[in-house]
Amino acid sequence: MTREVRHLIGGERVGTPTAVRENPARPGETVAVSAAADTDLAGLAVAAAQSAQPAWAATPAPARGSILTEAAALLLARADQVATDLTREEGKTLAEARGEVRRAVDILRFFGGEGWRANGQTLPSSLPDTFVYTKREPVGVVATITPWNFPIAIPAWKIAPALVSGNAVVLKPAELTPVSVWHLSEALREAGLPPGVLNVVYGDGAVAGRALVEDPRVGAVSFTGSVEVGQLIHAAVSARRARVQLEMGGKNPLVVLDDADPARAARIAAAGGYGLTGQACTATSRVICTPGIHDAFVDALLAEAARYQPGDGQSPGTLMGPVASAEQLAVDRSYLRIAADQGGQVLAGGAEPDGLRQSAAVVVDVKPDHRIATEEVFGPVIAVLRADDLDGAVAVANAVPFGLAAGIVTNDLRAAHRFADTVQAGVVKVNRPTSGLDLNVPFGGVKGSSTNTFREQGSVATEFYTWTKSVYMGVD
Ligand SMILES: NC(=O)C1=CN([C@@H]2O[C@H](COP(=O)(O)OP(=O)(O)OC[C@H]3O[C@@H](n4cnc5c(N)ncnc54)[C@H](OP(=O)(O)O)[C@@H]3O)[C@@H](O)[C@H]2O)C=CC1
Ligand SMILES: O=C(O)CCC(=O)C(=O)O
């Protein structure tokens, strides 16, 4: 089945679908044909948002929230179809897609509930007979620009806090994955979201995305994607003194200490590194072993890599789907060549003969200054490094420009606490894969992974989409 995907502007579906998306697991099978916005159309979406926003902001927050809650119910009722479409357009396995759709449902529910908890403080005043309180007001029109790797969860975790806070939104999803956002926006529309409160423009990021970023009517831009594009967006949005939130790459380490069980450590590494085909900003891409466990861990990881055979995500039993695009596959393969050229040994991860498939890769003898140890690959590639002890492992873990997620496998409580205290990362996992986040927990990176300001997810996510007004009320 081919989906025809049109923009959503002022409550209407508009545009002529022209951009073809094929199933990465089944070359030649068209999943969707989507419309592509130019600069003028992106401007129309901003205008629609601008005219809808005041009435939306004046709607009681619980009523805004109840629309999100209703959209969650609608999405849940069609979750199987949405998950199948997600697998067909992005490639991840059906189990992974079902988990992601369920996560989007829960995100809508969570922020639906936030409508009842909207916020502010009462504070004592230094003046007599004066009542002081704060309230959080919506920024106005916000733009959200999202990647292909979590095509429904990331849009949901950006637009839900924006909407419940009283903003109107223009969303620009990744060109590779138009269908998931179509489902999300349909659920919100059917749930009663007023026209213009959520607008969706599909198309090329360098055209439609850029137009949103440069539009002076857009008060805040939230972006997830590559460092390169994130930096462009940061420069453009900061230049006009609007708000910008960036979640970008990672080079996430998993430290494995001598006391760990090698098989368990390898399962944790593989789930983080090969799950989702390694296409997560939180994916495990480096494992740093202390000397006593290195060889046993590598043997166990090779056994795990053999289990994660790439296949069609729609087939039962497939543990790892295809790579999402030919461009991404070329990146994965080029990093394996670079790793070998710099002295790494590629023990698993040979080229697959057909389709967009990359087998799970294990690279050993990697040194901290190798490119495979410092640059994001975004594929099922794990580089194994050595360190003398915990402090040495933390030093290696911290020796990259990124700081998104980091993990450790150990039974030593003291070592786990020391790691959590000293590793430079926004998310720390002990005896759990680096990827996989709870939707109610703040998420964001440090160093080059993020803007290091506002966090996403959890109640704090609304902070980016609101500002504080302080009111001094004299009552005498
Ligand atoms: N942290 C993460 O979760 C992700 C990281 N990445 C990293 O980025 C690499 C490339 O992936 P890719 O999908 O190309 O990521 P991009 O950063 O190019 O794309 C992310 C989003 O930004 C849009 N965009 C692209 N250029 C501009 C621009 N000039 N102005 C505004 N918006 C723009 C894209 O649109 P369009 O779809 O048209 O390109 C997409 O919606 C990956 O290999 C990976 O390393 C990628 C995805 C997610
Ligand atoms: O690990 C996760 O659950 C989320 C990963 C993520 O945010 C991303 O890849 O952009």
From TrEMBL:
Query: Keyword Oxidoreductase on this protein?
Result: yes
Q: Does the keyword Oxidoreductase apply?
A: yes
Q: What Gene3D superfamilies does its record include?
A: Aldehyde Dehydrogenase, Chain A, domain 1 (3.40.605.10), Aldehyde Dehydrogenase, Chain A, domain 2 (3.40.309.10)
Q: Which Pfam families match?
A: Aldedh (PF00171)
Q: Which residues form the active site?
A: E247
Per UniProt, which keywords does this protein have? Oxidoreductase
Start and end residues of each Aldehyde dehydrogenase domain: 22-471
Task: Please list the GO terms describing molecular function.
Answer: oxidoreductase activity, acting on the aldehyde or oxo group of donors, NAD or NADP as acceptor
The UniProt entry's sequence similarity note says: Belongs to the aldehyde dehydrogenase family.
Q: Under which name does UniProt file this protein?
A: Aldehyde dehydrogenase
Q: Which organism is it from?
A: Phytohabitans rumicis
